[in-house]
Amino acid sequence: MDQGIAAVLSAGVAASVTLLGAAVAYRAGRRQVRDQGSIEHAHWLRGQREQAYLAFLASCERATAAGRLRRDLWERMHGATPDDETLSQLRDEVQTVGRAFSEAVDQILEPLERIRMLGPDIVISEAEYTLEAVRQFEDSMSPTGDPFNGEGHLRVQRTTFAAVARQVLLHPQERVTVVVAEE
Fold first, then answer.
1. CA 18, 21, 25, 26: dihedral to nearest 10 degrees?
2. pLDDT tier at 145 (50, 70, 90 boundaries)?
3. How far apart are CA 70 and CA 93, in angstroms?
4. What angle do CA 155, 158, 159 make, to 5 degrees?
5. Taking 50 as the threshold, does the pLDDT of residue 20 lie above it?
6. Which pTM value belongs to this model?
7. pLDDT interval class at 175 (50, 70, 90)
8. Residue 107 DSSP symbol
9. Helix axes 2-79, 121-139, angle to 10 degrees
10. In this predicted model, what pLDDT tens digit does every residue of 28-63 receive, in sequence order?
11. Given phi > 0 = left and psi -120 to 50 = alpha, else beta, which region is 85?
12. Which DSSP symbol is given to 108?
């Protein structure tokens, strides 16, 4: 009888160890799948953010280039003599480029919306500050404005946005802070 009890106990222990091993393997497999999914999502999110950040910067650059062209035409127009026949042509060009500049500013909104969806908050804030700097550059094109100061502020803000975006893309798990040097 002792051999029978020993055999039953051995079988019970073996079954328990087998079940415990299966449970551990099951949990490890689930954790590995979850971790792999998390890694793939982080990689996808990084790619989406990179595309949104680059599209935003490209839109800002198009608006800045149109603003520079508008500023240069404005200066040429104010340097022309009142009877100069090119003055009318320059006025038309300034209006055309002004419309193109306004459209370029409006086109910044699409990549900004993608940034608002993808985050993180620090990049959203810097993108919104950059859009505000673009709008200030646009406002500085008025006859009493200072377009060079507006462009300088925009350049600094665009650089700050790019630095924060780069930091988020390189170190997505770290908390990013912005330090702006006083001018």
1. 60
2. low
3. 8
4. 85
5. yes
6. 0.70
7. low
8. T
9. 10
10. 777 776 667 777 878 888 899 999 999 999 999 998
11. alpha
12. T
Among residues 60, 77, 40, 28, the alpha carbon closest in space to that of 151 is found at 60
Residue bearing tokens 């079954």: 15
Q: Are 166 and 158 spatial neighbours (Cβ–Cβ below 8 Å)?
A: no
Alpha carbon distance 86, 94 (integer Å): 12
Residue 62: burial class (beta carbons within 10 Å; 0-12, 13-18, 19+): middle
Which pair of tokens denotes residue 171? 């170190």
Q: What token pair was written down for 135?
A: 């709008």
Cα–Cα nearest to 112, from 44, 154, 53: 53
How far apart, in Å, are the Cα atoms of 35 and each of 30, 32, 68, 119?
9, 5, 49, 22
Tokens of 152: 């300088």
Amino acid present at 145 = G
Q: List the alpha helices (DSSP H) in the chain.
A: 2-79, 86-106, 109-118, 121-139, 147-170
**Rounded Cα–Cα distance for residues 39 and 50 (Å):** 17
CA torsion sign for 172, 173, 178, 179 is negative
CA 46 – CA 44 distance, rounded (Å) = 5
Q: What CA–CA distance (Å, rounded) separates 183 from 94?
A: 32
